[in-house]
């Protein structure tokens, strides 16, 4: 059995879609999967079980990337095509069944819209696949002993970025309550992201710089070793929630009701004002500290070391 799964170009949306894949893996234990996604999200699926291939969809003029995807898929007879982009591609492929996400922006959580594609209510929680080598690297970078706190001070546009000095104040406030805490600074690849993270790195000299160069399963393994995560609305926030790390997402003009972090120990906090309009600079340090203390449980014991699992 072969399943084609077309998901997002954006990391956060792709993370949210992984719960659907997890359901399909369990429902069809002998199926082989082809994933179609954007370049930023491709690494999410590197350790996914029964993944036959990943087709990286790179945007082209005149929507020619859809033609390229069709050419890559037309030679296969698919048992199921799941298209979360709402494109016409799967309609012109040989497929026994199709599940296509329709409609643009809707009210409510994005995760619920995704669940509706397969008729799942409540929708499945996101997951993340990683191998033994990823966990070994994470233990090397974040050894047992300190309580590691992941901070993600960057985002893909300036309106989402909580000021760097507030991340620094947050780290100092949490360390006053949690003396064995050490920060782990995460950010995406590229010079722009590095520049956004630099003030936080400079002010927290004992922080682990974990940004820029790691594969997504390696980042996920690092997050799984952290006692908590505080960061801007970003793909890293969604990745943290997916691995089960207590996750606090910070929101300004982006919609927390639609894109809040999804997980068993995940929540968001938004700047005061109308949703979708409030500047993130309006989010003060004190309420973030209070939310982090409540979520992270700073009096809880250090999490047990992770065990290796097969790749």
UniProtKB/TrEMBL annotation:
GO terms for cellular component: cytosol. This is Glycosyltransferase family 9 protein. Keywords: Glycosyltransferase, Transferase. GO terms for molecular function: ADP-heptose-lipopolysaccharide heptosyltransferase activity. It comes from the Bacteria. It holds the Pfam family Glyco_transf_9. InterPro entries: Glyco_trans_9, LPS_LOS_Heptosyltrfase. GO terms for biological process: lipopolysaccharide core region biosynthetic process.
